[in-house]
Amino acid sequence: MPRVDDFRLKLGSQEYVPIMQGGMGVDISTAELALAVCAEGGIGHISDAMGPYVSDKLFGTRFQSAKQKQFRQHANSLDKSEVQWDYERTYQGTFNHVKAAMEAKRGPGAVFVNTMEKLTMGNPQETLRARLVAQLDAGIDGITLSAGLHKGSLALIADQPRFHDVKIGIIVSSARALKIFLRSGDKFDRKPDYVVVEGPLAGGHLGFGLDWEKYDLKTIVREVMDFLKQEQLDIPVIPAGGVFTGSDAVAFLEQGAGAVQVATRFTIAQECGLPKLVKQIYLRSNEEDIVVNTSSPTGYPMRMLKNSPSLRSNVKPNCEALGYILDRQGKCAYHEAWDQAPIGPDGKKQAVESKMCICYHFMKYDCYTCGHNVYRLKDTTVRLPGGDYHLPSAAHIFNDYRYSIDHELAQPVVPEVERTGSNSAENGSTAHSKGERQAAPHSSLLIGA
Question: For position 437, which CATH number holds?
Fold first, then answer.
């Protein structure tokens, strides 16, 4: 019976185990997670979401506080047209994150970065260019363009020395979207090195409307493959969204896919950036807990758990320090919704139900974005005596995909101290605050401390 390990993804002169770990922001797909996947021979993604904030957290920079001071006079105004991230701060925040990850890279795999077009930062073209150039300068192995059609993204870096050397891919949800992107690269003689086809069961933002249930990944993958064949283009296609087992992956690989991209399984990995408490919430979820809504100010539908604190919030927008979703005119759908929200009997703004402050809640890990199969995570690990679940390593998850057959889910080996429950206070989620990260600080690993 075939396994994922019987196949290889070839990108240029390099071959990889055909497993991509998807990019999840903000710093959910940490450098540790991507590096662990790379060490096993696959491709790990970090996310470029809110790079200045990630740099401040990991490396002690003060990009957000400096921006807040610069624009504090706009704090009580709906007009945020002057509140923009500049090139220098955006570049340096991204560079710090990517450079440290690449310096820590070990093993036969690769580290890519997921780069979102919808991360507009009040200054869409300049900040996108700053992020892309910083990623190239920092030595990233590959760039996966996401959250948008990216019609102008290649033009922003066509003059860079590594433009034809770094691997560049695009995430699409239709052959039509891919066709648009291909046209944008014709003038630069630059085709994508791979195409990630994301289906309607993926986590986070979706490339579909609220009619997402009318679509299925297998059909879209076949349409994209047929389109590439008609165009006589030999570009690996990488299905994503709902690939939960190694057998799911093999089914696509046998049909000609170059690899698969997976993310939901890795949300509970020890190396994942979600706080332990949130990982346990994912593990306890049921299928009826999952919703697709329009709370994101980006305009894209988003899949998440319905108990996400972000859905019941009245937090005041802090665009002066954050402002990652402000458009070119300085507008954000959440800011406008918050401004119009009624005042309650306590004199405070009532909860905003139509939109959420995505910058704040992603920063606080209060938006529980997830793939449709999140409720199946409990089947991939072991429940401990205290009621919490053991958190497997990224290597275990990766190799379960790599070697499993017949949709089997290999259970991780649980250390004796966890199995007996002798230190349940340390291992249980109840001992940790909502914002606490996993042990082994991110920055210590990255700078080699």
Answer: 3.20.20.70
Q: Are strands 204-205 and 260-262 parallel, antiparallel or unpaired?
A: unpaired
Cα pseudo-dihedral 148, 212, 242, 203, rounded to 10: 50
Is the bond into 352 cis (omega within 30 degrees of 0)?
no
Q: What is the pLDDT of residues 335-389, one digit of tens each?
A: 999 999 999 998 888 999 899 999 999 999 999 999 999 999 999 999 999 999 9
What's the Cα-to-Cα distance from 238 to each of 18, 182, 258, 302, rounded to whole Å? 9, 16, 6, 21
Residue 449 pLDDT > 90 = no
Please give the pLDDT value at position 417: 87
Residues 63-80, mean pLDDT to the nearest whole number: 95
Q: Mind listing the pLDDT tens digit for each residue in 195-222?
A: 999 999 999 999 999 999 999 999 999 9
Q: What pLDDT sits at residue 99?
A: 98
Q: Which pair of structure tokens corresponds to residue 63? A: 């990009």
Please tell me the total count of domains within the chain: 1
217 exposed, middle or buried (CB, 10 Å; 0-12, 13-18, 19+)?
buried
Residue with tokens 């995505």: 358
Q: Is residue 184 part of a domain?
A: yes
> What's the whole-model pTM score?
0.92
Which tokens go with 111?
């580290």
Please report whether residue 284 resides in a domain.
no
